[in-house]
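This part of the workshop introduces the protein records we will be handling. An example says more than a description, so a record of this kind follows:
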Amino acid sequence: MADALVDAIDRVLPQTQCTQCGFQGCRPYARAIAAGEADIDRCPPGGDAGAAALARLLGRAPIPYDTSRGVHKPPQVVRIVEALCIGCTKCIQACPVDAIVGAAKLMHTVLVDECTGCELCLPPCPVDCIVLEPRVLDAAADAARERADRARTRFESRNARVTRVEAGRVAKLAARTEQALTAGPAEDPIAAALARSRAKRGYV
């Protein structure tokens, strides 16, 4: 029942994954709401309409969203000014839904259909080459829902990948540490070289 409630709340949230609610994504915020640890007013992208939708779902009185957490804005996307991009990859690392592609020292670009407009890529950009633009809206409501569902899937996929990479890094570090502990003191390279030299000359 608890998981079903979290799923229902998560479906109402806009899936921008912007963290303005104070949680690391829409799903963690949904869990907090379901557990009674957070109120329904903490999502600026959802605005008053989003808070009202959550209130209806949970059978509560509607309340306005908390404007201290951010300004409610129309749907937006980011664009990278190619002439200014230095290929630092900082925006790629910051994007919660893998909507920015590129490589080190090469120009990056935004997958507009996947961008949630979360703005998390703006602060780390060292050359301010990322600009916000209004999203061209599809009139069909199901198109927005489909986009939100894709954003959720991409967010979960990215988190799983980051977790795997971190687990691999920790495992390699542990293996190196274990190897160093079991190998014993490192051989003195100077003493070893002298020993080899003596052996070649026939000295004991």
